[in-house]
């Protein structure tokens, strides 16, 4: 092994807005003290309860991805497992997500408020189905 994952960083126009969006979606602490980086108006972090740390880096001329337009590539995306896709989609839309596509194979593709695509994937439901 050469490295371990420290943080996934997303470019965006407003670091605080995007950190709050993902905190509402994943839980965790925004801008938890961490000696690996400084947080300010140009950089914010989210330490979720599980999974990797997310970083949000301000880019003044941010050009959001336009899925699936390769002229505006995804740059990255997150796959998020949920017990109920319909309920999860309702919740993330209320947080400011935008629907992009419902795949017939069973997942939904949305964009966060800065335009980054992410997928909702069906995971085990609380009743075991």
TrEMBL record:
Ranges for domain Glyoxalase-like: 8-121
InterPro entries in alphabetical order: Glyas_Bleomycin-R_OHBP_Dase, Glyoxalase_6
Domain of life: Bacteria
Signal sequence coordinates: none
SUPFAM superfamilies: Glyoxalase/Bleomycin resistance protein/Dihydroxybiphenyl dioxygenase
PANTHER family hit by this protein: CONSERVED PROTEIN (PTHR35908:SF1), HYPOTHETICAL FUSION PROTEIN (PTHR35908)
Protein name: VOC family protein
Organism: Streptomyces radicis
